[in-house]
Fold:
Amino acid sequence: MSHDLLLKNATVIDPAQNIHGAFDVAVDGDRIAAVAPSIAAEARQTIDLKGKILTPGWIDIHAHVYAGATTWGFKADAFCLATGVTTIVDAGSPGWANFLGFEEFIAAPARTQILTFIHISGIGLTYGPVGEMTDIRYAAPEQTACVVQNWPDTCVGVKVRMGAMQVGDNDLEPLRLAVQAANMAASPLMVHIGPGLSLPAMLDLMRPGDIVTHCYKSALSGPLPDGDGSEGLIVGDDLQIMPQVRAARARGILFDLGHGGGSFNFRVARLALAQDFRSDVISTDLHVHSLEDPVYSMPETASKLLHLGVELPEVVRQATAAPAAAIGRADQLGTLRPGTSADLAAFNMAAGEFTFEDVHAQRETGGQMIEPVLTVRAGKPYWPADLHEEVEETRRRARQMRALHRKDFAALGWTPGA
Amino acid sequence: MAYDLLLKNATVIDPAQNLDGRFDVAVDGDRITAVAPSIVGEARQVVDLEGKILTPGWIDIHAHIFAGFTTWGFKADALCLSTGVTTIVDAGSPGWANFLAFKEFIVEPARTQMLTFVHISGIGLTYGPAGEMTDMRYAAPEQTAFVIQEWPDICVGVKVRQAAFQVGDNGVEPLRLAVEAGRLSGTPVMVHIGAGVALPDVLAGMRPGDIATHCYQGHGDHILGDGTEVIAEVWQARERGILFDLGHGGGSFNFEVAKRALANGFVSDIISTDIHSSSFESTVQSLPDAASKLLNLGIDLRDIVRQTTASAAASIHRDDELGTLRPGTIADLAAFEILEGEYEFFDTHRQPHPGSALISPVLTVRAGQVYRPDDLRAEVEQEARRSAQTIRAIAGSNAAALQQLKQ
Structure:
């Protein structure tokens, strides 16, 4: 029997199966058919990946891909396939009021698997300039749960953002209502943590399996003063990871990176890693405002952790098995186990001098970059070079929305009233 | 030369050209080619409309069709083509933040011409349960004006809703910013009038060419003030060139207000439906349905057709290309028959009004393509009704209804 696709000679890393070594992978239709040290069978298409890393397709559990319908959303499909991401999860751009548009026009037509958390705010993240939970009338636990439960193929859980900018005077109430929705829907809750609210108080309300996102975020924004890293949200005044954070982890609460435009601080990450407090999951928080600077992509975000000393198999685990488990999909995603969806990613470990930047414009030089080479999604191979034009369109659209959001009308070639 | 389409023997009413009589209409490609008492040329398709009324395609300037992205929106394409509507204008469902989705996912795939007012609130009418201008931070005159000027083929103006539910404590400040956006973009503002904000204050903030919608609403602060006569400020506004649009909807058409106004000689300038996910299966089924209510209140059919064609086109500054059968314009047409019988119409306060005539759609031609209601019945069921029922079921957290809709 001949296979549809044979990926040969790569170094395969599949943490879910404890595989790390030279393996071939065979694909039939949209399923993994075999993983073995050497597969001799014929194949309609054979790709030699000698010298490359081959992993399960990467899963980005925090991004904003509701392009056109929100000020955050970017057109993610081609971008994902060009960067090794086979499943991308929107972190709450849709609320119950505009979920159906997401389902029909974003998720259904995409080649990438596109999933979402449903925001506890009925309008989701439509409008960047205004915090979505400053007006508690937008909170809708019943409708949110109703959508999550009735569209289980697309919805993975509930989202809430818990910073002062998002909740105004409502303190912990949005989180309470989001937990209520997640309980009704029997699904995990992703909680954006931010300054202005008590993290221990938030963790108290969260349940095992819920996800803290932005774990290496600083309470400060913009350029940083000299300091020691105590500005980290998960760090106490004594420069130690807060005991409540460790207790939350012990209870089964997950900590997600969620890089984004404001949530990755080298100092905080370094302090946490020195205390062996690793993120559970790597995610980008890619959106219109972080796409070109300072996130760039999932592999680049992962490369930052590599630069900070996290070893490659752990980085791959945080981009495959761990996110699959976080969204309750470990049975079908994040592994190369035969019979699962043929989602794979091949990378080149490039050596050289690379500049990495955090959200405070702190620049560091690293020696290794994880470069995407090939993505296989549902059995179909995609090469970054073939997606170049589509990715450019993604960037152009993102720049347009960014300028409109910032009222940079000169960049849009428009003079008000002219 | 053979025509592509020949519509024969109808009674043609085209108020823009002062036509009212027996005419044939010829179409080539997507354009009107000829209107004449008798056209004898060959045609690839001939439709005999003996006994029917033939008019320019109807234009509904107030509807909510941003299905999937708002609690109000439903899928309107097939419904329009089965009810004589060739151009439908969304009254502010998109704001600047989600306009591009409206353009890409609603307008571009539709057969019906779909246009929109852009809401002064950046989130538009995403969320029915909360007033969109109770928080002024959502008001965005510059971004709104940019969107309108950047996409003039789709955007016709600015929308604001000026009743207490929508503006909270903000009075006429949302209107002021909407007019600012209208000024920056050189387009009209459509203003929803309603209870809780004094109508004279609202009208005072409007410019000639701006549109007051829900002119026969009966919830308070309506055109009769506290009395039984149309108030002076309304007459003065009309004098200044402010237009009054019907905007039927789920709550904005009151027979008593309409009857009083008509008795005063105050007739709407434009008939529109304000059709949306809740109203279209209850209070207003279609534009011919809304128009039939006016017909049975004594408005002459020719004036009704003027309101749904030439006037509607002029109000959105499209009368050079829409709302007429002038040769060279787009081949958008609607054929109706006037059914006679005993009908009962209801306003949005569940008050009945008996009627003897019903404007019943027979055929729609959009950009030269012929559509018949019977051929669209399944689509109306699957698209329009299902989309409306689905968002209503989610709004009501009605899992049982959702399960049924999925089957």
Notes: The CA atoms of residues 402 and 408 of chain A lie 8 Å apart. The radius of gyration of chain A is 21 Å.
